[in-house]
Amino acid sequence: KVIVKPIVPNEVTAGPSAKTPKPSTFARSFTIAALQQYTNSFSQENLLGGGMLGSVYRAELPDGKLLAVKKLEKRVASQQKDDEFIELVENIDRIQHVNVVRLMGYCAEHGQKLLIYEYCSNGSLQDALHSDDEFKKLLSWNTRIRMALGAARALEYMHEACQPPVIHRNFKSANVLLDDDLDVRVSDCGLAPLIASGSVSQLSGQLQSIYGYGAPEFESGIYTSQSDVYSFGVFMLELLTGRKSYDRTRSRGEQFLVRWAIPQLHDIEALSRMVDPSLNGEYPAKALSRFADIISRCVQSEPEFRPRMSEVVQDLLDIIRRERPSNESIGD
């Protein structure tokens, strides 16, 4: 593997850095000066969100094109040497799939490290489900299955098509973004090496468990592709119920979505009561029980009993096929 060490340019230009040798990637190198200009000095108005790795800002290029800039936290950035960061950029850039947020560029200057991604205009599925009642009305049963399928295809590609396989390690509805057409783009793919390092690793374990996405083996510090499958099952439960993975405003027995839902997934009456009220009962009963069956297999406490993501993709496709008129085709 060739590791390219970036050379810090002596002068800072307003456009993409011309002096830093590019890694073997299509991602473009930006200067801090340019990114400050495009984000209005990383202003609060341009803040899109934040997590354990850093904050994400909206950036507007001079031609009006929008990008999303992830500014890594100082403690995360300081744990990565420049050549390690360039290697990370190269690895992220190899993850190319229609349902994965595309890396557009990077910046490594003055001790700061930033990743620049395509911009997804409709925000995250977490916001769509839990923050915006008007937007939530657009999320019909069929739309939700299509979103589950898009996210499943992204994880299937990472686990089973990428060599070496890519484990997401932080899969949740906040990392499932929506474009203009409400098509799914999974974000933060390829960032597991940042999460795995030192203090962030402990924090990520706690956060995943606290917010209800972490598989049981997380507590022992074990994380595999099957742990992603568990998190995907929690995400499917959010789509089904419209509830958060963890909600401390609910009564004690209902705070953790998985714990509350598991006993009810095979009871058809209890299951129909669990469905997101904003769907107004508009869903096929058989499709609902098949959807619940996929969830219950994904959130098995033993990793070896969970399905591979390719099985989940096929099961979701089966649900769609059974509900569609025979003359309709399923788009890829």
TrEMBL record:
<dbReference type="InterPro" id="IPR001245">
    <property type="entry name" value="Ser-Thr/Tyr_kinase_cat_dom"/>
</dbReference>
<dbReference type="GO" id="GO:0004674">
    <property type="term" value="F:protein serine/threonine kinase activity"/>
</dbReference>
<keyword id="KW-0449">Lipoprotein</keyword>
<dbReference type="GO" id="GO:0005524">
    <property type="term" value="F:ATP binding"/>
</dbReference>
<dbReference type="Pfam" id="PF07714">
    <property type="entry name" value="PK_Tyr_Ser-Thr"/>
</dbReference>
<dbReference type="InterPro" id="IPR000719">
    <property type="entry name" value="Prot_kinase_dom"/>
</dbReference>
<protein>
    <recommendedName>
        <fullName>Protein kinase domain-containing protein</fullName>
    </recommendedName>
</protein>
<keyword id="KW-0812">Transmembrane</keyword>
<dbReference type="GO" id="GO:0005886">
    <property type="term" value="C:plasma membrane"/>
</dbReference>
<feature type="domain" description="Protein kinase">
    <location>
        <begin position="42"/>
        <end position="320"/>
    </location>
</feature>
<keyword id="KW-0472">Membrane</keyword>
<keyword id="KW-0418">Kinase</keyword>
<keyword id="KW-1133">Transmembrane helix</keyword>
<dbReference type="InterPro" id="IPR011009">
    <property type="entry name" value="Kinase-like_dom_sf"/>
</dbReference>
<keyword id="KW-0723">Serine/threonine-protein kinase</keyword>
<keyword id="KW-0808">Transferase</keyword>
